[in-house]
Records
---
Amino acid sequence: MIPDADDLPDVLLDLGVAHEDINELVALRPRVTDDPGVRDLLERAVGAVTRDMGTVGGSPLFPSPPDGGDLLERCFSVYVYVAALPATRAYHRSLGVPDDVSRRTLADLGRHMAVHRRRYGSCGIHAVAWLGLHFHGELYQLGRLQYQRARLGGRWGTGVAAGGLPLTSGDPCLSLHIPDFRGPLSPGACDRSLALAREFFARHYPDERYEVAVCHSWLLDPQLKDHLPQDSNLVRFQERFRVAWENTEPDDEGPVGFVFGDPRLPVEDLPRRTSVERAVGDHLRRGGHWYGGHGWFPLPWSGTTAP
């Protein structure tokens, strides 16, 4: 299930894993393959990820070692996804998904390892279940944005219906995600990504009609407009969306974690190097709070695409 020590580095590099993590992961391999208990755990975890491949239903949960800070515990999910990789790639090929889309989607594993290293200074993954969406065929990287095949929940359905679309809870939607380490969130990059998504899902999932995009993110907090120029990338991204509903519970750790890398950083010590850092930190230092936003916009639907 796991490539041998000679082949594993190439597989990890294809998944976007940083060179500085490769040797640790290769050296850790015997603890995964030679221990019957860990090997059994791995087989059950891979089965959870690959079962009902492509079915929309949320990130598949799988068993893992207890979280005690040990390298194996921090990196066990890396071996799960490496072992699941052939099944995921076979599923992509069965749909005709282009190889570059498949490769860039699954390279999000390496990006999450970079996020972990920035936050904790060590090799590992902390967003373990999230990557199940990628390897289960539910999420794709298309240009600057990621798109998750999903269904409207209760409040989403109510908000979209109130906005005039003939949709309701349970109808298909594309949930947008904004990954870090992917360059600026410019209007042009977003436009190109949305164009790719419309073509991609019409071609590869023709039986799933996606007429609405939704997004849950602190980037949709309307207070951002009070702290950033109106022509900034983040404000222009926010203006694409209509409000589905408003949060009343603060979520200060969200923007601190995404902007500064660690949600636990003391507010008074947050740096002010960029306009976004100044916006997030200064607002908190003045006693304000940030809130998760919930937005949507209609997606033009062609229904068909050229073969």
---
Amino acid sequence: MTLDQVTRRHLADTTLAVVVGALVMTAAAIDHRATPADYALIAVGSLALAAYRCAPRRVLAVSTVATTAYVLHAHPGTLAALPVLSAVHTAARAGHRGVAALASALFLAGFVTTDLAARGSAERSLLLAGWFLCALVTGLADRNWQAYLRQTEQRAMEAERTREEAALRRAGEERLRIARELHDSLTHSISIVKLQAGVAVHLARKRGEEVSPALLAIQEAGGEAMRELRATLGVLRTDEPTGTPALLVERARAAGLAVELTVNGDERPLTATVDRAAYRIVQEALTNAARHAGPAKVAVQLHYSPDELTIAVDDDGGADPSCPPTPGIGLTGMRERVTALGGTLHAAPRTEGGFSVRAELPLGIPEEVS
């Protein structure tokens, strides 16, 4: 969220609190029974609403206590319940149903106590109870709607990511198929041409004959074609990462995941195999966190020691240690990469909740010989 968006949100919350307070104060002024202390209670109960996003339970407590005290002292009309109604709605929307219901009951008890002697008190009390019930229900409905929207967005992001991964996988498979075809067909033919041209040049020089310029050109062109073909095959077979773990973390933040990256030790360049494995491990761990951990916080740690690189990706999601997940393709591929490098991998739910991925990769692994 940008600074402008945060400022606009704070301004909207403050405006809501001021409007609610102005309405209740206007009703109190018309009633002609409010004292300066009552106006102060109204101001406290209403202006507290400006902080409902960051502290909904505290706002609910302050609004309920201040407004109930005002009701018990001044015996106002039903409009005095507006700050508590707003606080109950926002608390229910934040998931605090029990606290919101308790606050509603406390305020209603205070209001009924002061309204017993008035005519039509039962009707007003029932009407007010209906308002509080609506505040609770609409808060819960709004919470469920927001959860539905988040799930819809996550499904759309997952579908897009799956399509991208499938497209990348198909592209990689096609590159490998082309590389095999080129190797099986062209490499053999060019090698034969180069070999035959080389033999002809050797025999001509051995007999003391002048070597034909065309033959020399064929020999040179064959060698150049072989070098170009090897370079092309190398490009087609390459499966290098498209970034760094830091870039993966930035992408995850942009997608809405709360991720923090910590690097310890003496950071240094890695061999291609270790670098590729580290990238893929962090990528898969963040992908799983985005898919299964929900709105959780994720901590990515890279620790460089003289002999190994330790990668730890922990989230505080809802994974349960008593129900370990069934390893899918991602975790299986991650374990295969680590095992191929002689490292170790631990991927399981944490005792305190959430999921943990820890990989230890030995450093100094020699490059693959092609």
